[in-house]
Write a structure and sequence with these properties.
Oligomer: single chain
Radius of gyration: 18 Å
Strand content: 5-15%
CATH architecture of the largest domain: 2-Layer Sandwich
Largest sheet: 5 strands, mixed
Shape: globular
Number of domains: 2
Number of helices: 11
Helix content: 40-55%
Distance between the termini: 37 Å
Number of strands: 7
């Protein structure tokens, strides 16, 4: 599944999770790029933890401190892949209901906030509908039973609702995180149309076949940047970026009904 450095990083994260939550850990699962066609140069390590009971503020802070050590270019123990780690309580997601609730979320975009103190708070998380679908689809077990024993399948209507709920925030990040936003829109459109969650580059390839010629160049560039590991955002023509995003979001909204 994973080799070398990434495998060691994942083992460190699993050890951390078990140190913090002990016997309350029911399952730990890999998802995202690692199980959807393989990690790309800038891919996160995406992990879902399923617990038996709710977390405490002390536990959440301990998990944050540990993740600050082992996640991303600013990791305290040397440069590694960025980690996105979500924690749910089994009783909050099984039986399934919408919107689901999340106990904890860590991602490198939150590092600055967490370095100042505090920790994530439990909150509703519509996009868990997508994440849980990826976990079930990938079936990549790090700890515990197969995910289907702990997680219910997400109805397609709720998968659509979860995807649609994230669009306003994505539009707000369009100019600051252009590549990832464009690729996420491509994944949303692909998922709504095919019922499958694909890797970002595979989703972009599918969407490129649906686009009129004037909207292909922007997405083709975002896909190439993703595959090449190009981290620096250089978009000379933001007008074209906005026009592409508007076209794709309109298509997503049309297909969501």
């Amino acid at each position: 599944m994973l080799k070398g450095r990434e495998s060691g990083q994942v083992h460190s994260i699993v050890r951390l999770v078990i140190e913090v939550f002990g016997v309350n850990v029911l399952g730990v699962y890999l998802h995202g790029s690692a199980v959807l066609g393989g990690l790309r140069p800038t891919s996160d390590l995406d992990i879902l933890v399923v617990l038996e009971r709710r977390t405490t503020a002390t536990e959440r802070r301990a998990l944050v401190e540990g993740l600050l050590d082992v996640s991303g270019a600013r990791a305290r123990r040397g440069t590694v892949r960025p980690v996105e780690l979500s924690v749910v309580v089994e009783g909050d997601v099984k039986p399934w209901r919408y919107p689901p609730s999340q106990e904890f979320l860590y991602g490198e975009w939150l590092r600055g906030t967490y370095e100042l103190g505090g920790a994530p708070q439990p909150e509703p998380a519509p996009d868990l509908s997508i994440l849980i679908t990826m976990v079930l689809q990938g079936n990549a077990v790090l700890v515990g039973p197969p995910p289907a024993q702990l997680l219910d399948p997400v109805p397609h209507d709720d998968l659509i609702r979860g995807a649609m709920a994230g669009i306003p925030e994505l539009l707000g990040d369009l100019e600051s995180d252009t590549r990832n936003v464009l690729l996420t829109f491509a994944r949303i459109w692909t998922t709504l149309q095919t019922g499958q969650i694909r890797s970002k580059d595979a989703a972009a390839a599918w969407v490129l076949e649906q686009l009129p010629p004037e909207h292909r160049l922007v997405l083709a560039r975002a896909r190439a940047m993703y595959l090449d590991g190009e981290d620096e955002e250089r978009w000379a023509d933001l007008t074209a970026v906005h026009a592409h995003a508007e076209y794709v979001v309109d298509a997503i909204r049309r297909h969501s009904h």
